[in-house]
Specification:
mainly alpha, Growth Hormone, Chain: A, 2 domains, 21 helices
């Protein structure tokens, strides 16, 4: 496989007509593919509300039943590195159908679980199949959308944004009128319908398959490394968490060394990162995803601990953040076309920073609900203006044949960004809280944590300045540069 240059891009996709309009076939693929991503995201959040009910019905502790959620999320990360290789081997449509069928079947098994251990095992199986649905959705949409990726992904992202908001609502309604088992059994009819639609409307992609050996050493280093990194980040206050985090860093370093030596035979061809546009885009996605998750951690803790609000009221007060994102995502394609990638992403980064700065003042001088709501809405608008243009420029900068591997690399980088910056902010906040005397208010610690978050926002703005002005235009990819020297 030849390495893409910084300005190369995918060939024009089927479904985009010469009148520069999106054909109906594109929207069929987008709608069908988005169902899988939506269900995987929904199932990642729907169980959180029901943990207490699960613990009571299955006669286990809350800490034990927590693995119903943790096992699912860790299994997602475990399977992610295999995405590119599997697409190359069996094709995008075949892989999507297999994953969706396995996801639906494991959902039914979760609903029939007879013990906590069986439920955890079935949730891990569900996570392993669901872990490939989100990157598969991105890749199939990128193939059919071509240069219209910004317009299409802005609409396709709405169901994924809605999933975390709808999860608690759906779970609450089910638990009020039925058993917790229906949290999983409800996926059965939806999954069967989605499978039928996918079989009918998704392009086969068999012509783009190719024989490529599996990098077993890379898989043995990268997949466990991701799992250990996510587990260690979530348990950093314990010795096992620190050990897991250290082990993951060693595994990542070994993977980097072996992948550089193997070139296109590696699980992920690291020569993709030599493309200026691609590397700049995934750096922005890493920062944006990390800042988003860090804010989702800091703001609720501030409202509960420093302001004394109940968790239920905190949840309602955070709604403007999601509202700001949902109000702007559908227009990202048009805005990207009008203003270009760099200008839109940079303005989004500045807006997100402007929506975070008031928290420094709120932490010091007290909560004002109107200021909180306005700040969260502006922050949501800003963050939504970063993801779509950076993702579009990343996809447009690689050759069409490299889309599966590029999708895998992008999703891994995004998944690492969240826990990395969240852990940084959480560790800093914990240090400041421990240094605060018992008689002193804790507002200073939260104010300092928000200063750190704003500093990260400033770094994100600087990173957006490395993005291209416009979405890269498709072009032929030059031959791969030798691995022992930098390309000219």
């Amino acid at each position: 496989m030849s390495s893409p240059s910084k300005d190369s891009g995918p060939a024009p996709a089927a479904g985009v007509d010469r009148a520069d309009r999106l054909g109906p076939d594109v929207w069929k693929v987008v709608c069908v593919a988005a169902i899988g991503s939506f269900m995987a995201q929904l199932d990642a959040t729907v169980v959180n509300v029901s943990l207490a009910s699960l613990a009571a019905d299955l006669h286990v502790s809350l800490s034990a039943i927590q693995w119903v959620t943790s096992g699912y999320l860790l299994a997602l990360a475990l399977m992610l590195p295999l995405n590119g290789w599997l697409v190359d081997r069996i094709g995008a449509k075949a892989l999507y159908l297999w994953c969706f069928a396995a996801f639906t079947l494991s959902s039914a098994l979760c609903g029939l679980a007879w013990s906590a251990n069986s439920l955890i095992v079935f949730r891990v199986l569900q996570g392993m199949s669901g872990g490939l649905l989100a990157p598969m959705t991105q890749m199939m949409i990128a193939r059919v959308a071509g240069k219209h990726m910004a317009q299409v992904v802005g609409v396709a992202a709405l169901p994924v944004l809605l999933a975390p908001l709808l999860g608690p609502v759906v779970a609450g309604a089910i638990l009020q009128f039925a058993s917790w088992r229906w949290l999983f059994l409800i996926n059965l009819p939806v999954g069967v319908l989605a499978l039928a639609l996918a079989a009918a409307f998704l392009p086969s992609g068999r012509e783009e398959t190719r024989s490529r050996g599996l990098d077993l050493l890379g898989l043995a280093l990268l997949s466990p490394g991701l799992v250990l990194f996510l587990y260690g980040s979530d348990h950093l206050g314990k010795r096992i968490g620190v050990a897991a985090l250290a082990a993951s860093i060693v595994m990542f370093a070994l993977f980097y060394r072996t992948a550089r030596a193997k070139g296109d035979a590696a699980l992920i061809d690291l020569r993709l990162l030599k493309g200026k546009v691609f590397s700049a885009s995934i750096a922005v996605m890493f920062m944006a995803n990390g800042i988003s998750f860090a804010g989702q951690m800091l703001i609720p803790i501030y409202l509960v601990r420093a302001c004394g609000l109940s968790p239920s009221r905190t949840g309602w007060l955070l709604a403007p953040l999601g509202l700001g994102m949902m109000c702007t995502y559908p227009f990202m394609g048009r805005l990207t076309k009008w203003f270009g990638v760099r200008k839109l992403a940079a303005c989004g980064a500045l807006l997100a920073l402007a929506g975070t700065l008031p928290f420094i003042v709120l932490a010091r001088h007290g909560l004002v609900v109107a200021v909180l709501a306005a700040s969260l809405f502006i922050r949501g608008v800003g963050l939504s203006a970063i993801g779509v243009p950076s993702m579009s420029s990343a996809y447009a900068s690689v050759a069409r044949r490299d889309l599966p591997m590029a999708t895998t690399a992008m999703n891994i980088v995004q998944r690492l960004g969240g826990p990395t910056l969240t852990t940084l902010c959480a560790t800093f906040l914990g240090w400041r809280l421990s240094a605060t005397p018992d008689t002193a208010p804790i507002s200073g610690a939260f104010s300092a944590a928000f200063v750190l978050l704003c500093a990260l926002h400033a770094l994100l703005f600087l990173a957006t300045l490395r993005l291209p002005w416009l979405v890269p235009v498709a072009g032929p990819a030059p031959p791969s540069p030798p691995m022992d020297r930098e390309p000219a």
